[in-house]
């Protein structure tokens, strides 16, 4: 999109001379539509993955909590509390890890572009 826009601005006198402004405007709109569609797919996939990871984590947490409830007679209460606290900590850690992993992708693309220059 930016390359097309910069080339269009650089050659605006030629484009106007040959009366091709509508062609370049339509091309810019088409590129913009493709970019928005790709961004929507990317956001949808990230949301889908995040929901799936959180559901798996929720099931794991529920199993751990049920185990703590049913084994309260045979286990030390301190260990039960420790397991519950660690499960909540794992939830926050996985959320933060997912957010950081999702944020590093675009930064690596920028790095690769600079590296190829």
Structural write-up:
The chain has 4 helices and no strands. The protein is mainly α and 117 residues long. α3 runs antiparallel to α4. The protein is rod-shaped, with a radius of gyration of 26 Å.
Gist?
This protein has 117 residues and is mostly helical.
Layout of helices and strands:
Elements: H1 2-10, H2 12-17, H3 21-70, H4 77-116
Highlighted features:
4 helices, single chain, mainly alpha, rod-shaped, 0% strand, 117 residues
Q: Into which percentage range does the β-strand content fall?
A: under 5%
How much is the average pLDDT?
A: 82
Low-confidence stretches: none
Share of helix among residues?
A: over 70%
- Taken in chain order, the helices and strands follow as HHHH
Shape: rod-shaped
State the major sheet.
none
Record field, number of beta strands: 0
Number of helices, counting only DSSP H or I runs of 4 residues or more: 4
């Amino acid at each position: 999109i930016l390359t097309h826009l910069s080339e269009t601005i650089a050659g605006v006198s030629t484009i106007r001379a040959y009366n091709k402004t509508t062609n370049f405007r339509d091309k810019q709109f088409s590129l913009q539509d493709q970019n928005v569609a790709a961004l929507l797919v990317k956001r949808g996939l990230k949301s889908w993955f995040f929901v799936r990871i959180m559901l798996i984590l929720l099931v794991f947490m529920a199993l751990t909590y049920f185990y703590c409830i049913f084994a309260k007679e045979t286990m030390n209460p301190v260990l039960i509390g420790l397991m519950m606290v660690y499960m909540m900590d794992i939830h926050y850690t996985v959320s933060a890890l997912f957010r950081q992993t999702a944020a590093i992708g675009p930064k690596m693309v920028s790095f690769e572009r600079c590296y190829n220059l």
